[in-house]
Amino acid sequence: MGKRIVLMYISEVSGHRNAALAIERAIRILEPQSEITNINAFNYTNPIAEKVVNSIYMGIIKVAPKFWDYLYDNPKIVKRVEKTKQNIHKANSPKLKQLFDRLKPDAVVCTQAFPCGMVADYKKTYESDLPLVAVLTDFTPHSYWIYDQVNLYITPSEDVSLRLIKKGVCVDKIKALGIPFDHKFNAPLEKERVFHKYKLSSELPTILIMGGGQGLGPIKTIVRSLEKVDRRIQEIVVTGTNKKLYRSLKRKIKKYKQKILLFEYAQHINELMFISDIVISKPGGVTTAEVLAKGKPMIIVKPLPGQEASNTAYLTEKGAALKVGRPRKINLAVNDLLKNALKLNRISSIAEYISKPNASMDIAKLLLRLAHD
What secondary structure letter does DSSP report for 78? Predict the structure, then answer.
């Protein structure tokens, strides 16, 4: 009989959810008879609160991002919200008990800190020995992840593992296996066939522009700036769930001299990334893991405070990405890379070197071993 594993994330359009789905797919490949339940934990316990919190978060990010920077992993704030957090977790524990009594999981895996805290408190309240695994999907382990009841931390890199150890986590509880992403990104593809599929030229430099699942960031400004690139290029723009952005770009496409291929929420990012020479994107954890695994040079424009700023710092320090502060000037960074093959190749090589392309499979194997113990 297969093992029963519960995967928990929050927010439907997010890297956390994509990471949970990537782990699920990998487990199904390795052990098809496994019973896997993937749950939006916040929606399950507080469906109304989820909508309110998501709206507040998006509002802060769009209107006052510096305020989010102040809240994010601030020791004073972490301490101040501790009591509130405990009260929320205690209120959620009975709902989790009902869920776990029904599903009888062999392990629970959380790809975001909020459900991790909920399950940790459930374990404490009911003195449960249910194995709890925290899968970190960003390159900074903030304090909201730290609970004694977590049995295992899976980190994106050895650097993140060291930071967890500094925060008091026992080294025996940590494995640096990478950020999980869909295993199809590792499947071999034929370049000419993919170019032909999308009616693009293999002779022109190809730039992929993304704003995460929700199509955030100064994408319109980036596209305008790329009009000033010294040579002919072709652009692939993915707007995610941002319908307003998609409609706006669709109206303007014919006015631009560069060729632009426009997508909404794309299910074939692996193909688009494969044929791209440069990726301009928000540095969400899962997107970053995909770009690194493909060995693509990445340009990051105006990262959001918090996780994105931390991911950007990690990537630029390693030399696997460039940060551009002003979106209007992105044409200069693209010009520089396209004229300097040595620099382009160096960034690409570093990206590949620090990548963990088999993260999903490695995590799935570890979870199945843990569930069998």
Answer: H
Q: What is the pLDDT of residue 66?
A: 57
147-186: per-residue pLDDT in tens?
999 999 999 999 999 999 999 999 999 999 999 999 999 9
Q: Distance between CA 54 and CA 12 in Å, rounded?
A: 10
Same fold, 4-179+358-372 and 186-354: yes
370-373 LR contacts (CB < 8 Å, sep 24+)? 370/106, 370/107, 370/131, 370/133, 370/151, 370/152, 371/3, 371/4, 371/5, 371/106, 371/107, 371/131, 372/3, 372/106
What does the domain layout of the chain look like in residue ranges? 4-179+358-372, 186-354
Residue with tokens 């060729």: 259
Burial letters for 261-292: b for 16+ Cβ neighbours within 10 Å, e otherwise?
A: bbbebeeebbbbbbbbbbbbbbbbbbbbbbbb
Residue 78: its pLDDT value, please?
A: 54
| Residue whose C-alpha is closest to residue 33's, from 5, 11, 7, 61 | 5
Quick one: CA dihedral 176, 179, 181, 186, positive or negative?
Answer: negative
What pTM value is reported for the model? 0.88
Predicted confidence at residue 61, as pLDDT, reads 47
CA–CA separation, 245 and 268 (whole Å):
20
In CATH, the architecture of 4-179+358-372 is 3-Layer(aba) Sandwich (3.40)
Q: Which residues of 348-365 are buried (b: 16+ CB within 10 A; e: fewer)?
A: bebbeebbbbbbbbbbbb
Which superfamily does 186-354 belong to? Glycogen Phosphorylase B; (3.40.50.2000)
Q: 3-state DSSP call for residue 245? A: helix
pLDDT tens sequence across 202-253: 999 999 999 987 888 899 999 999 999 999 999 999 999 899 999 999 999 9
Tokens representing residue 114 in the block: 């909020």
Instruction: Summarize the confidence of residues 39-51 as an average pLDDT.
Output: 68
Q: Tokens representing 297?
A: 């040079």
| Angle CA 22–23–25, to nearest 5 | 65
Local confidence band at 345 (pLDDT 50, 70, 90 cut-offs) = very high
